[in-house]
Write a structure and sequence with these properties.
single chain; alpha/beta; five-stranded parallel sheet
Length: about 325
Amino acid sequence: MTADLDRLREVLTRARREVGKVIIGQDRAVDQALIVILTGHHALVEGVPGVAKTLLVRTLARVLGCEFARIQFTPDLMPADITGTNVYSLKTGEFSLVRGPIFTTFLLADEINRAPAKTQSALLQAMQERMVTIDRETHPLDPGFTVFATQNPIEYEGTYPLPEAQKDRFMLKIAMACPSEEEELILARRMLGSEAPEATLASGQVQPALRHEDLAAIRGGLETIVVREELIGYVVEIVRRTRANDSILVGAGPRATQSLLLAGRAHAALQGRDFVTPDDIRTMTDPVLEHRLILRPEYEIEGLTVSEIIGRLLQEVAVPR
């Protein structure tokens, strides 16, 4: 089991190094994306245009040796455009399946809130069961199927809110901020030469950290990381507090408890430890819970944010020693 953990640490170190050749800054977003992939879940990526949301997912697919597909969500996008459909061939006299872009490993659902709920719901079965049903026939997806859905936090005209059932299927909400002044200077200098991020990725300088078929074995290394019983109770209490808080209209469900435990364990692996600490849980609480909670309107009017409420909840819950 120790060998599995050593292999996991080696892959994470190499993955971070290779991603860093393309993505400037955004260390927290890179780590959170790796956490999502390691735990076999999905992520909602939020950021203004130009902060490398798409580039991050493409780079991770290259580094982890996985297939990548992108769907641009628009108001006229139909569910069949995502899943695929059966097409009748006049030559053979038979129907054959034309697979949609959902048949991949890493799927980028770009600006997912641009499509109506009917189209968004085409992803629900795939995200939960890694299967897709087309004309009453169910087809399996890649075991490592992962959805990275992006949305713009400042532009709401012509958008549709994500259903709560779908938001709950995203393990994390990854917030990608604008780069710092120093990082933006580095980016500006690179753009004037041959080291622009897109060019670096296209030139083959980014090397895979592992093969696609090895990804499942790498995930097994997480099972060697120890989670004490007190920390399990700590996670459960944090999530249950969201359901009893006066300022929260809709609290987090049991899936949030599972996500917070798994995210905390993966965060410990990223830190090179074989055990989870309360700080791992606290670090991952906001990315896991923020998109799942709905504040009461009167508290929103006062200017409170979900992140502030989560911060208060963490202060109220006793930290296990």
